[in-house]
Amino acid sequence: MLFFSMTDYLSIIEKHYPTGSLRWRIYLPHCQAVRDLALAIARAHPALGADPAILEVGAMLHDIGIFMTDAPEIGCLGDLPYLSHGYKGRELLEKEGLPEIAPVCERHIGVGITLQDIIDRDLPLPHRDMTPQTIEEKIICYADKFFSKSATDLLKPKPLEKVKKSISKYGDDKWQIFEEMMALFGLDQVYSNTSSPSR
Ligand SMILES: [Fe+2]
Questions:
Q1: Which residue range(s) make up the domain with 153?
Q2: Which of 53, 103, 144, 166 has a CA 20 to 30 Å removed from the CA of 2?
Q3: Element spanning 36, H or E
Protein backbone atom coordinates (compact mmCIF):
# COMPACT_ATOMS: atom_id res chain seq x y z
CA MET A 1 0.00 0.00 0.00
CA LEU A 2 1.40 3.33 -1.03
CA PHE A 3 0.81 6.26 1.33
CA PHE A 4 1.57 9.11 -0.95
CA SER A 5 -0.93 11.62 -2.20
CA MET A 6 -1.25 13.44 -5.48
CA THR A 7 -0.24 16.75 -3.85
CA ASP A 8 2.96 15.16 -2.60
CA TYR A 9 4.22 14.20 -6.02
CA LEU A 10 3.13 17.49 -7.52
CA SER A 11 5.20 19.32 -4.91
CA ILE A 12 8.29 17.33 -5.93
CA ILE A 13 7.68 18.23 -9.58
CA GLU A 14 7.12 21.90 -8.76
CA LYS A 15 10.46 22.10 -6.92
CA HIS A 16 12.38 21.34 -10.10
CA TYR A 17 9.97 22.27 -12.89
CA PRO A 18 8.80 25.83 -12.24
CA THR A 19 5.24 26.36 -13.39
CA GLY A 20 5.15 27.84 -16.89
CA SER A 21 8.81 27.10 -17.66
CA LEU A 22 9.76 25.31 -20.88
CA ARG A 23 10.72 22.16 -19.04
CA TRP A 24 7.43 22.20 -17.08
CA ARG A 25 5.49 22.52 -20.35
CA ILE A 26 7.22 19.39 -21.60
CA TYR A 27 7.57 17.39 -18.39
CA LEU A 28 3.98 17.52 -17.27
CA PRO A 29 2.16 16.46 -20.47
CA HIS A 30 4.80 13.82 -21.19
CA CYS A 31 4.36 12.24 -17.77
CA GLN A 32 0.58 12.55 -17.96
CA ALA A 33 0.58 10.76 -21.33
CA VAL A 34 2.71 7.95 -19.87
CA ARG A 35 0.51 7.80 -16.74
CA ASP A 36 -2.75 7.63 -18.71
CA LEU A 37 -1.48 4.87 -20.96
CA ALA A 38 -0.01 2.93 -18.03
CA LEU A 39 -3.31 3.11 -16.15
CA ALA A 40 -5.28 2.13 -19.26
CA ILE A 41 -3.05 -0.93 -19.73
CA ALA A 42 -3.50 -1.90 -16.08
CA ARG A 43 -7.28 -1.55 -16.37
CA ALA A 44 -7.36 -3.65 -19.53
CA HIS A 45 -5.21 -6.39 -17.96
CA PRO A 46 -6.38 -6.78 -14.36
CA ALA A 47 -4.70 -10.19 -14.15
CA LEU A 48 -1.34 -8.41 -14.17
CA GLY A 49 -2.14 -7.12 -10.69
CA ALA A 50 -0.50 -3.73 -11.19
CA ASP A 51 -1.12 -1.21 -8.40
CA PRO A 52 -2.70 1.92 -9.93
CA ALA A 53 -1.32 4.19 -7.16
CA ILE A 54 2.24 3.05 -7.84
CA LEU A 55 1.66 3.40 -11.58
CA GLU A 56 0.38 6.94 -11.17
CA VAL A 57 3.14 8.23 -8.92
CA GLY A 58 5.84 6.29 -10.79
CA ALA A 59 4.71 7.58 -14.19
CA MET A 60 4.48 11.18 -12.96
CA LEU A 61 7.99 11.02 -11.47
CA HIS A 62 9.86 8.63 -13.79
CA ASP A 63 11.70 11.45 -15.59
CA ILE A 64 12.18 13.70 -12.55
CA GLY A 65 15.96 13.72 -13.13
CA ILE A 66 15.95 15.30 -16.59
CA PHE A 67 16.38 18.85 -15.24
CA MET A 68 19.91 17.93 -14.12
CA THR A 69 20.96 17.09 -17.67
CA ASP A 70 22.24 19.14 -20.54
CA ALA A 71 19.18 19.25 -22.82
CA PRO A 72 18.44 22.96 -23.43
CA GLU A 73 15.97 22.17 -26.23
CA ILE A 74 13.59 20.88 -23.56
CA GLY A 75 14.56 23.48 -20.98
CA CYS A 76 16.96 21.30 -18.99
CA LEU A 77 20.07 23.28 -18.17
CA GLY A 78 22.19 20.90 -16.10
CA ASP A 79 25.59 19.59 -17.08
CA LEU A 80 25.10 15.83 -17.01
CA PRO A 81 24.62 13.63 -20.07
CA TYR A 82 20.93 12.98 -20.74
CA LEU A 83 21.32 9.28 -19.96
CA SER A 84 22.12 10.17 -16.35
CA HIS A 85 18.56 11.34 -15.72
CA GLY A 86 17.61 7.83 -14.68
CA TYR A 87 19.97 7.17 -11.79
CA LYS A 88 20.01 10.84 -10.75
CA GLY A 89 16.22 10.76 -10.58
CA ARG A 90 16.40 7.62 -8.47
CA GLU A 91 18.76 9.34 -6.03
CA LEU A 92 16.44 12.35 -5.83
CA LEU A 93 13.34 10.26 -5.08
CA GLU A 94 15.22 8.22 -2.48
CA LYS A 95 16.11 11.49 -0.74
CA GLU A 96 12.44 12.51 -0.97
CA GLY A 97 11.55 9.34 0.93
CA LEU A 98 10.16 7.34 -1.99
CA PRO A 99 12.39 4.24 -2.09
CA GLU A 100 9.62 2.06 -3.55
CA ILE A 101 9.06 4.40 -6.50
CA ALA A 102 12.64 5.59 -7.07
CA PRO A 103 14.01 2.62 -9.09
CA VAL A 104 11.61 3.27 -11.99
CA CYS A 105 13.68 6.36 -12.81
CA GLU A 106 16.66 4.29 -13.88
CA ARG A 107 14.71 1.24 -15.05
CA HIS A 108 12.49 2.86 -17.69
CA ILE A 109 15.21 3.88 -20.16
CA GLY A 110 14.94 2.03 -23.46
CA VAL A 111 13.65 -1.42 -22.56
CA GLY A 112 16.00 -1.41 -19.58
CA ILE A 113 19.79 -1.23 -19.43
CA THR A 114 21.72 -4.30 -18.32
CA LEU A 115 25.00 -4.21 -16.43
CA GLN A 116 26.56 -5.80 -19.51
CA ASP A 117 25.21 -2.93 -21.69
CA ILE A 118 26.81 -0.41 -19.32
CA ILE A 119 30.17 -2.19 -19.43
CA ASP A 120 30.17 -3.04 -23.16
CA ARG A 121 29.12 0.44 -24.27
CA ASP A 122 31.09 2.21 -21.56
CA LEU A 123 27.99 4.13 -20.52
CA PRO A 124 28.39 6.94 -17.96
CA LEU A 125 26.28 5.08 -15.41
CA PRO A 126 26.81 3.27 -12.10
CA HIS A 127 27.58 -0.41 -12.67
CA ARG A 128 24.35 -2.20 -11.82
CA ASP A 129 21.39 -3.78 -13.52
CA MET A 130 18.85 -1.16 -14.62
CA THR A 131 16.15 -3.32 -16.15
CA PRO A 132 12.50 -3.04 -15.04
CA GLN A 133 11.70 -5.62 -12.35
CA THR A 134 8.20 -5.03 -11.00
CA ILE A 135 5.04 -5.14 -13.10
CA GLU A 136 4.55 -1.40 -12.52
CA GLU A 137 8.12 -0.65 -13.70
CA LYS A 138 7.56 -2.79 -16.80
CA ILE A 139 4.29 -1.07 -17.70
CA ILE A 140 5.76 2.43 -17.22
CA CYS A 141 8.85 1.52 -19.26
CA TYR A 142 6.61 0.19 -22.05
CA ALA A 143 4.20 3.15 -22.01
CA ASP A 144 7.08 5.63 -22.06
CA LYS A 145 8.38 4.25 -25.36
CA PHE A 146 5.40 5.64 -27.23
CA PHE A 147 5.89 9.26 -26.21
CA SER A 148 8.65 11.59 -27.31
CA LYS A 149 9.54 14.74 -25.42
CA SER A 150 10.44 16.48 -28.67
CA ALA A 151 7.18 15.83 -30.52
CA THR A 152 4.89 18.70 -31.50
CA ASP A 153 2.02 16.87 -29.86
CA LEU A 154 3.39 15.38 -26.64
CA LEU A 155 0.21 13.42 -26.03
CA LYS A 156 0.11 11.61 -29.34
CA PRO A 157 1.71 8.16 -29.37
CA LYS A 158 4.46 7.58 -31.92
CA PRO A 159 3.77 5.20 -34.78
CA LEU A 160 5.14 1.74 -34.02
CA GLU A 161 7.68 2.07 -36.82
CA LYS A 162 9.30 5.00 -35.00
CA VAL A 163 9.29 3.13 -31.72
CA LYS A 164 10.96 0.21 -33.46
CA LYS A 165 13.60 2.43 -35.00
CA SER A 166 14.59 4.01 -31.72
CA ILE A 167 14.71 0.69 -29.84
CA SER A 168 16.39 -1.39 -32.54
CA LYS A 169 19.40 0.90 -32.74
CA TYR A 170 20.51 -0.59 -29.41
CA GLY A 171 20.41 -4.12 -30.85
CA ASP A 172 18.02 -6.82 -32.07
CA ASP A 173 17.82 -8.24 -28.56
CA LYS A 174 16.28 -4.96 -27.37
CA TRP A 175 13.54 -5.11 -29.97
CA GLN A 176 12.87 -8.70 -28.94
CA ILE A 177 12.36 -7.56 -25.35
CA PHE A 178 9.96 -4.90 -26.58
CA GLU A 179 8.05 -7.52 -28.57
CA GLU A 180 7.66 -9.54 -25.38
CA MET A 181 6.26 -6.43 -23.70
CA MET A 182 3.86 -5.92 -26.62
CA ALA A 183 2.65 -9.51 -26.26
CA LEU A 184 1.95 -8.82 -22.59
CA PHE A 185 0.52 -5.31 -22.69
CA GLY A 186 -0.82 -5.01 -26.25
CA LEU A 187 -1.26 -2.04 -28.53
CA ASP A 188 -5.02 -1.54 -28.17
CA GLN A 189 -4.71 0.98 -25.34
CA VAL A 190 -1.84 2.76 -27.08
CA TYR A 191 -3.64 3.68 -30.26
CA SER A 192 -7.28 3.57 -29.16
CA ASN A 193 -7.70 7.33 -28.66
CA THR A 194 -5.63 8.66 -31.48
CA SER A 195 -6.72 9.75 -34.90
CA SER A 196 -3.56 8.29 -36.38
CA PRO A 197 -3.99 4.63 -37.27
CA SER A 198 -0.38 4.46 -38.50
CA ARG A 199 1.53 1.82 -36.60
FE1 LIG B 1 9.64 9.46 -20.13
A1: 6-190
A2: 144
A3: helix 22-44
What distance in angstroms lies between residue 197's CA and the mean position of ligand 1's atoms?
Answer: 22
Please state the separation of Cα 191 from the chain's center in Å. 18
Walk along the chain (199 residues) in steps of 10 and give the mean pLDDT of each run.
70 97 97 98 98 96 98 97 98 95 97 97 97 98 96 93 93 94 97 55
Residue 149 CA to ligand 1 centre (angstroms): 7
Q: Is residue 196 part of a domain?
A: no
Distance 71 CA to ligand 1 centre (A): 14
Give the distance (Å) from ligand 1 centre to CA of residue 31: 6
Which residues hold their Cβ within 5 A of ligand 1, which is an ion?
63, 144
User: What pLDDT was estimated at residue 5?
Assistant: 65
At 36, which CATH number? Answer: 1.10.3210
Give the chain's domain count: 1
